[in-house]
Amino acid sequence: MSRSNRSSNPVTAKRGLSPNIVVTLVIVVVAALVLGGILLFGGSEDGDNGGAGDQPRVSAEVLRKPDSHTLIEAPDGKVTLVEFLDYQCPACASYYRNITSKIEQDYAGRITFVTRNFPLEMHPLAVPAAEAAEAAALQGKYREMYHALYDNFQQWAVSPDGQNVNSDAAAAKALFSGYAEQLGLDMAKYEADLGSPQVRAAIEQGRADGQQAGVTSTPTLFVNGIKFQPQGDTFGAVDKELRELIDRELG
Q1: Neighbour tally for 63: CB within 10 Å
Q2: Binning pLDDT at 50, 70 and 90, where does residue 53 land?
Q3: Is the pLDDT of residue 118 over 60?
Q4: To the nearest whole percent, how much of the chain has pLDDT over 70?
Q5: Pairing mode of beta strands 220-223, 80-85
Q6: Segments of the chain assigned E as strands
Q7: pTM over 0.90
Q8: What is the model's pLDDT at position 28?
Q9: Can you tell me the distance from the alpha carbon of 118 to that of 88, in angstroms, rounded to the nearest whole number?
Q10: Which molecular function GO terms apply here (predicted)?
Q11: What are 115's strand-pairing partners?
């Protein structure tokens, strides 16, 4: 700015210099300053950085606890994908069908995929479903119950009219018990664990960590602490953005 101030006085004081030349010089100076600002501060746009921008990373200690459940795990631990989910959330189920189940298959052995509970108040069966998953986890069958809940989403999560979320907890719990039996769980232990302090603590810890990480809706995903904020308006586009972010972190 000091340079432009110093140069303006001699230019305007010079006799015989037309007003058009003065205007032209001013435009050139302004354009140079604007261009310089773009080069200095522009960097890459969010679209070129998978929506990551310059946002700070959420710490691994917040996103993952030692007893958090993994769907897949990479030996090198280089990239960790964390999803905060609600089992009765239609958007979560759609992500599962179109994106995350494919990520789980395609990146097996390359990334660690962690899931955390974040049941929302608007979904009356979200907590019972989370309890079923956590009770199964106590018998080493978390991943299997996770898949059973999402693979059968229409069966228990949606009302008979197909337009609303289901609220029949008794019917849903009976279905969850059926899934547990199919997985070969000890049913007496499973039923006892459903309402246990350990199961409730796991669900509440997920909620607390999600809130600390800034989660307000589901699904919310983080790649190595970077909150994934997709820009696409189709599942194909969102899947592509997520893979690009994961691949960048893999290097």
Answers
A1: 24
A2: low
A3: yes
A4: 78
A5: antiparallel
A6: 69-72, 80-85, 112-117, 220-223, 226-227
A7: no
A8: 33
A9: 11
A10: oxidoreductase activity
A11: 69, 83
Rounded-to-integer distance, Cα 102 and Cα 122, Å: 27
Q: How far apart are CA 226 and CA 234, in angstroms?
A: 21
Torsion of CA 172, 174, 178, 181, to 10 degrees: 130
Q: Cβ(106)–Cβ(99) under 8 Å?
A: no
Distances (CA, A) of 38 to 35, 41, 51, 125, 138: 5, 5, 19, 50, 54
- The pair of structure tokens assigned to 132 is 């079923």
CA separation for the pair 76, 40 (Å, rounded):
36
Sheet containing 112-117: which strands, arranged edge to edge? 69-72, 112-117, 80-85, 220-223, 226-227
CA 222 to CA 190: how far, in whole Å? 31
pLDDT at residue 55, rounded to an integer? 80
Given this structure, which CATH class describes domain 60-250? alpha beta
What would the pLDDT profile of 21-30 be if each residue is shown by its tens digit? 333 333 333 3
Tell me which residue has tokens 């009219």: 161
